[in-house]
Amino acid sequence: MKDMTKLMICALATLLLAGCGESTKKDPDPIAENTEEVAPFSWKAANLYFLLTDRFNNGDPSNDVNYERTNDSAVLRGFEGGDLKGITQKINEGYFTDLGINAIWMTPVVEQVHDGTDEGTGYTYGYHGYWTKDWTALDPNFGTREDLAELVEAAHSKGIRILLDAVINHTGPVTEMDTVWPEEWVRTSPKCEFQDYESTVTCTLVENLPDIKTESNEAVELPPQLVEKWKAEGRYEEEMAELDAFFEKTGHPRAPRFYIMKWLSDYITDFGIDGYRVDTVKHTEEYVWQEFKKVCVDAFAEWKQANPDKVLDNTPFYMVGEIYFYDVLSGRYYDFGDRKVDYFVDSFDALINFNLRSSGDKTYEEVFSNYNSILQNELKGFSTLSYLTSHDDGSPFDKEREKPFETANRLLLAPGASQVYYGDELARPLIIEGTNGDATLRSFMNWEDIENNPETKKILEHWQKLGRFRRDHIAVGAGVHKMFTETPYTFMRKTADDMPEDAVVVGLGLAAGEKMVEVGEAFTDGTTIRDAYSGITSEVKNGSVFINSEYDIVLLEKSED
């Protein structure tokens, strides 16, 4: 810390003679510059956007009703019209680029059971994508294969990676129109009790959600309903030939899990997706994920070899797992009570972190320093994916949407990768009258609020500035964290080891107007620094910069001018 007398003299000199760093230059609106230049990328620092395909944007109203899904559903438990074309539309408009997003994860787009169920929450269709009927086909409510190809191409053209959602643990529920899979494929009981490893893995997740026998190595035939369906669609011979080739190439038995792995890997070889978010990880044997990772990595290599002109860079295929209630502070292991499992071994690059959303009673520094410690030590070489809101977590960080600015700060400045849930950046309501269960978290995107609500626009601009800063600086998510001052809170992130060289300094809770910010070893004296939040530039002198802005936040980066 600098001597207070010196600070007062320096501040006065700055005002009168501009002698402590020239902060008079201001760049154009940092959000207005929708540049296509792509910053160095690492999954460890990704700014990922998670959306429900059916609830984000309706780009093609003609596909809103299929398979006679016309029954009246409970509130927010039917299809609402969102589709792949709608996502592509927003990619092309630059919405994700402005928001600083460099990866998009969408809920499953495979064909869902045609009928619905009423399991005590009201009549429900598979709008969420987790009730698979056919892994090899897209559900027409979401779009076509051509739509998916166009989406991936559009995203890649802007440096945005695409994650699909992998479900290997279960099929869709049994309905009047959708029959149960053969008993050599699935079990329909007992229901999981979550008391230990066995009662979490070898059981059905919930009632009427048949559990794939992922532990089995016994060869099985295709389910009759798939055979009948593929023949009616005129693709039975083609699908069988591909299966034969897959099993001959891999040497895997024709066991249930390997059929599904083949079908999921086709989305890599056919479309060039960049990763999978994997559902219900702890409900499946850990070796299954090691097998799946290898299948995916091989498929990604095959796609790259066949499409050299479409390869973004040498970033490996990414797998992030969902283990409900996994806490990054627990390190590499998930504890079932009677057994601890390390899911990072030859499988997952990251696990979704359930800790951040319950961090409201902790300061930024408590959270950031703890995450930095675990990521730089026990989890070194791996990462985490933190969120504050999600589609099935009934205890989000700010359910009433009273703290949208703090939500952005806490999420987008945390070490590791960040997961923005669709509408976080617009304070989309999470409490919807008449809903039951997690449906309240899944309302349609509130696009109209951007134009109709000035406060929403201010919130969005804040998320955009922080998101772009995170995207443009790999140090934010993957750098080493160091606090400079506690009040106001200032800190540095700087990359180390084999990461691309990068450094940033962040200040929160600063005074409006002129403020001095220590930059330590992040930037040397004489370096021109830009505040990415206000667009103001200043020169480093005596290890500090002066920024004169109306905001209480600074996002300091080396100026490229």
Biggest sheet layout: 8 strands, parallel, barrel
Helical element count? 15
Shape: globular
The overall pLDDT average reads: 94
**Gyration radius from CA atoms, angstroms:** 25 Å
The low-confidence runs, each spanning 5 or more residues with pLDDT under 50, are: 1-25, 28-35
Number of domains: 2
Percent helix range: 25-40%
User: Hey, roughly how much beta strand do the residues contain?
Assistant: 15-25%
Strand order of the largest sheet: 1-2-5-8-9-12-13-14
- Within CATH, the superfamily of the largest domain carries the name Glycosidases
> According to CATH, what is the class of the largest domain?
Alpha Beta
Helix/strand class: alpha/beta
How many beta-strand runs? 22
CATH fold type of the largest domain: TIM Barrel
CATH architecture of the largest domain: Alpha-Beta Barrel
Could you give the distance between the termini? Answer: 29 Å
